[in-house]
Amino acid sequence: NGVILKCTFCVHRLEKDLLPSCVVTCPVDALVFGDKDDPASPISNILRERESFQLLEDLGTEPSVYYLGGVPPNSKVREIERPLTKVER
Prior knowledge:
Blueprint: H1 11-14, H2 21-25, H3 42-49, E1 52-53, E2 67-68
Antiparallel strand pairs: 1-2
């Protein structure tokens, strides 16, 4: 163990037209998954209506994850945002 793996967005679930596990199990519906190129999709609507940013976009990494609100990390800000509350399960 001790190996860090990159998220695959649960490709095994996507192949069955299921959402990634993290989206399904998030207790506060904080994660949204979908086709941002489809103008009618929920994620496209959210990205149109809210300010967002991507990590390392300026390095040409073409990230697929968007963060809503908050402040992107920079030389003065090392965290995106501190959690406001702890979620108990």
